Amino acid sequence: MIDRPRKSQPPSKRRSHLVGERCPPDFRSAAEVAAVEGLAHDFITLPTTEKAPITMSKISVHHVGGRWGDDSFSKLELFESDLVRVLYEADEDAIQTMQEARRETKSELLIVAACLNDGPGEATLNLTLNLGINSILEPSAAMRNRCKNISGVDRDWQEGTTVVDRRTVQTTALDDILADSGAPSSDFLSLDTQGSEHAILTGVANALKSVCGLIVEVEFVEMY
Description:
Layout (H helix, E strand, L loop, with lengths): L16 E2 L11 H8 L3 E5 L13 E6 L18 E7 L5 H7 L6 E6 L1 E2 L4 E8 L12 H6 L8 H6 L2 E10 L1 H8 L6 E4 L5 H6 L10 E4 L8
Parallel strand pairs: 2-5, 3-4, 3-9, 4-5, 6-8, 9-10
Antiparallel strand pairs: 1-2, 7-8
């Protein structure tokens, strides 16, 4: 295992927030809180000057589009305590769901509330009936019309892609997040962002240098 130097700050400078009632007044590190209160889960909201209190020497698994608190890499129970899992999600309303889903995880967990794209800018986040289909791209009407509600097959796509709300969000590049938040560099990276994966990778240069494994969702029809 490669031992990366840990980027640390004095306790008074750490401003990342621990989940719910576990947020300590002295902003102890995740490891310190875990020793006293059990596993600690951190999350930060970007743009920010906050630094993530995460162990930098562990294997780092990053997943973009982690609304349900999961990622694309298999769970290896024997090795979970050696991992840092970093989840990115554009919809801040999903943060609590993500925290609950990973409450019992043995890995260190960092949730970043940010919308990734090819760089800084502004985008419209389309919130759909099926929240797992949210995207900064508009769902394809042609694709919706091709899906039929037959015995559950494709049932979710035709109805699920109905846009119920649109929010203006600020976008950022993965390189900028890693530089600004203090999150560990990615050893393994997966993206499931409903059509914007290519744009996110376009905005990645430095972050890919450390990546050993990459998983990207690809569509062979125009879904957005």
